[in-house]
Amino acid sequence: MASINLTTFNVRGLNTPQKRSQVITLLRKSKSDICFFQETHFKFGKVPSLPLSTFKYWYYSSYNKAARGTSIAIAKHIPFEHILT
What we know:
This protein is α+β, with helices and mostly antiparallel strands. It is globular. It contains one helix and four strands; from the N terminus they run E-H-E-E-E. 16% of the residues lie in helices and 27% in strands.
């Protein structure tokens, strides 16, 4: 049975390019398969991209105020199928 590495970060906001760069560096070092981000603080419809080729799927939850939000990143080697319900 294969193992999956899960990582979670409380990022306290990812709206600045410097912070996004730090998170990308941490992701590369962590060798995570699935990563959860808390407190992304993205406003609804204003989600910046995190250019990281090892993660194929990115899911964002945002709110009309920049005080909440979560994100999930799933590595491209994980067999994952998004099913709409």
